Amino acid sequence: MTDFLKLNNLSFSYSDSEFSIRNVSLSISEGKFVSVVGRNGSGKSTLIKIICRIYRNYYGEIFFHGRNLKDYEGKEISKLIAYLPQHAPVYNDVLSVRQLLMNGRYPYKDFFNFRTTKEDDEIVNFTADLTGVQDFLEKPVDRLSGGERQKVFLTLSLVQLNPMKALKGKLLVIDEPITFLDINHQLEIFALVKRLNVDNGLTVISVIHDLNYAMKFSDEVILIDSGIVVKSGKPNEVITTDSLRNYFLVNSEIHNLSGRNILNIINQYDE
Questions:
Q1: Strand pairing class (260-268; 250-257)
Q2: Strands 220-225 and 203-207, how do they pair?
Q3: What is the pLDDT along the chain (271 residues), one digit of tens a residue?
């Protein structure tokens, strides 16, 4: 069986002397929700930007659906992999939400013809209904709350993948989706992404800073330290008191409440 996503000896450097990612080899199965965790500066965001082809001058190989990632054409891969950055891209805020979401149809357009079609309208409406943003499609982007804005940009990523033709076999890559959101919106965003993962077969790779969310929503967790994958596996195998002491430098307790592990940070670990 061909791996959905396979990384072989992946390395990346921002300069000639300092590697951000070193000899990373991973296999990610289709249909999984995978969290990437680690301290600030560990290489998490760099890794997912390489997977999304934002950084291309890497060493090693990446295979997606058994094919070298570098062999895909730009629009071809954009129909299969979408990226939701930590900070929303800069758009003209006078756009309505509907106008913004139409940008997700770019991979399906000819360079000289970007006219909106009935199919475009159907896909935007379908995706907006899927994510619960249909009630403010005509609202200007600059009038959105933080939670609404994040849901809209998640919707934009999904429009790019065209959920009307199924999300199975496609990949959503997210760089910390809940920055600056209140707890209610944090849970809403994660629950929405998890529902798309479970119900629609969408494979998800997400950088997550809150380890309790990683334990709650993930099928697998990848722990990176200084550009190296030090542990990977099920959440309860990776997020342990030993891991937190060794790689996050904190003392912690993990309690099982109603079948779910809950992490409690006690204090900093003093070596």
A1: antiparallel
A2: unpaired
A3: 568 999 999 999 987 667 789 999 999 999 999 999 999 989 999 999 999 999 989 999 999 999 999 999 999 999 999 999 877 665 666 789 999 999 999 999 876 677 889 999 999 999 999 999 999 999 998 888 888 888 999 999 999 999 998 999 999 999 987 766 788 888 888 999 999 999 999 999 999 999 999 999 999 999 999 999 999 999 999 999 999 999 998 888 888 887 788 888 888 776 5
Structure tokens at 163: 């959920």
Are 211 and 247 in contact by the 8 Å Cβ rule? The answer is no
Q: Look up residue 34 and give its two tokens.
A: 């995978």
Domain boundaries, given as residue ranges, for the chain: 5-239, 240-271
Taking CA atoms, 53 is separated from 69, 73, 94, 147, in Å, by 8, 11, 30, 27
Of 216, 207, 196, nearest in space to 173 by CA: 207
Closest CA to 56 of 38, 39, 76, 74: 74
User: The whole model's pTM is what?
Assistant: 0.93
Please state which CATH class domain 5-239 belongs to: alpha beta
